[in-house]
Write a structure and sequence with these properties.
Number of helices: 11
CATH topology: TIM Barrel
CATH architecture: Alpha-Beta Barrel
Distance between the termini: 11 Å
Order of helices and strands: EEEHEHHEHEHHEEEHEHEHEHH
Length: 243
């Protein structure tokens, strides 16, 4: 199982939100590139990087910081947050991102998503962010009536290879992940599922690995010291080259 330390960027700083609330922000660093290098030094091969300003406002506010990470850190970097047109997809891929994550754009314009998958294949992933399995968009500020599980099935049908599923109600809470959701998602054959939101315990990582979940994103649990990145990598059990 792949382990993805998370770097969320807001106003140029490394932060974590609590349950997606932009009014509940904890700052963990002033320099995203430095944080990326620290994760690499600890043995990480992958990074999950999100432009929180972009996710909320639809503009690539932290593009330069993310471009530096993607081009210089020497890791597999997946990038999301406010990527809503083809130019931004291309810009991040050209900057060195291994995978671009579409969220709001995937929900609002399925035709655009289909075209991006057709052109870029596995370099396109979709972020499915939900509360009670109802998808939220625009930086988790706007609720929809779309069911996350049903949406994931539709994604597989058009060739999406990787889905990041986040239970917003668990994110940043350090109280554990929604394992029931990942058990259902793991049954979708041919879809790589990355678990996100609230993962806080070694036992959860072991459970996700045993269920065949492709990856796990770790955020506040790493920053707070609740989980060790080195130990998480051991549990993940991936000893080969990066993705």
């Amino acid at each position: 199982m792949e382990i993805f330390p998370a770097i969320d960027i807001l106003d140029g700083k490394v932060v974590r939100l609590s349950r997606g609330d932009y009014d509940r922000v904890t700052v963990y660093g002033e320099n995203p590139m430095q944080t990326a290098r620290e994760f690499k030094k600890s043995g990480a091969r992958n990074l999950h990087v999100v432009d929180l300003d972009g996710a909320r406002d639809g503009r690539p506010s932290n593009f330069d910081a993310i471009r530096q990470i993607a081009s210089d850190v020497g890791m597999f970097v997946e990038v999301g947050g406010g990527i809503r047109d083809e130019n931004r997809v291309a810009s991040y891929l050209e900057a060195g991102a291994g995978r671009v994550i579409l969220g709001t754009a995937a929900v609002n314009d399925f035709g655009f998503l289909r075209e991006m998958v057709k052109r870029h294949g596995d370099r396109i992933a979709v972020s499915v962010d939900a509360v009670d399995d109802l998808i939220a968009i625009n930086g988790w500020k706007e609720a929809t009536e779309l069911r996350g599980m049903d949406f994931c099935l539709g994604l597989k049908e058009i060739g999406v290879g990787t889905v990041i599923y986040t239970d917003i109600s668990r994110d940043g809470g350090l109280s554990g992940a929604n394992l029931a959701a990942y058990e259902r998602l793991a049954e979708i054959k041919g879809l790589n599922v990355i678990a996100s939101g609230g993962i806080s315990f070694e036992s959860e990582l072991e459970w996700l690995r045993e269920k065949g979940v492709y990856g796990a994103i770790l955020g506040k649990a790493l920053y707070s010291g609740k989980l060790s990145l080195e130990r998480a990598m051991e549990i993940g059990g991936r000893d080969g080259a990066q993705i």
